[in-house]
Amino acid sequence: MISLAVYNRKGKEVESIKVDEASLGGRVNHQLLKQAIVMYHANKRVGTAATKNKSLVEGSTRKLYKQKHTGNARVGQLRTAKRVGGGVTFEKKSRDFGKNMPRKQRRLAANQAVLEKILSGNCLLLDELKMEKPKTAEFADILDNLKINRSCLVMIAAADDNICKSVRNIPKVSVMPVVQINAGDVCNHMKVLFTKDAFLALLNKGKEGEN
After folding, report:
1. 63 Cβ neighbours under 8 A, 6+ residues apart
2. pTM score
3. Domain range spanning residue 155?
4. pLDDT digit string (tens) for 127-165?
5. In a domain, 59, yes or no
6. Are strands 173-177 and 13-19 parallel, antiparallel or unpaired?
7. Ramachandran region of residue 25, left (φ > 0), alpha (ψ -120 to 50) or beta?
8. Is residue 109 included in any domain, yes or no?
């Protein structure tokens, strides 16, 4: 069992939560994490780069002039890659770089990414996070009180526009509902900040996955 402290907005510890490693995968499988991170980056690639080959360039396919007895070097059609405005020899084609993993593996990788953050001391819990209106300065003060000065992923129980608008102008800080958690986003941030409700929802989801 791991004891995880819960802090308030002022950065003071108010309680602690016992976490069973088994609910987060039991151990960190680095091969599984690597596979999930590779998938995460591959799915963010946009494979729309494309150039025209000889068959796609506009122009006639007629041979420009006869092969012999002209005194000129032999040439083919106007669209050949050797001429200005012709097609590209080894053209780029649009492609899909996307990868996929089974749902259970994706969920296990996300849980193990959180477990790795806990074991390395880079996971923090906040007792509550409610904002009546967007206030970037207020949220920045919370991060300062928790001594978070690196990239941080904020996990909340449900989507909240006020929190999202408060975070979006803070560099290297992202916010996400816990239902969208994935190993790529967790590993791409140095710190992970959970609200207490979001963390308990994650643990309950992990227990349901075991059953």
Report:
1. 75, 76, 77
2. 0.80
3. 2-45+97-210
4. 999 999 999 999 999 999 999 998 999 999 999 999 999
5. no
6. unpaired
7. left
8. yes
Question: The CATH number of the domain where 198 resides is what?
Answer: 3.40.1370.10
**To 10 degrees, what angle do helices 103-119 and 30-44 make?**
110
Domain-located, residue 104: yes
* 36 contact partners, CB below 8 Å, separation of at least 6: 101, 105, 106, 109, 110, 113, 182, 183, 184
Interval 174-192: pLDDT, tens: 999 999 999 999 999 999 9
pLDDT at 25: 84
Q: What pairs with residue 15 in β-bridges?
A: 6
In the chain, the number of structural domains is 1
| Cα first-last separation, the chain | 20
Specify if 182 maps to a domain.
Answer: yes
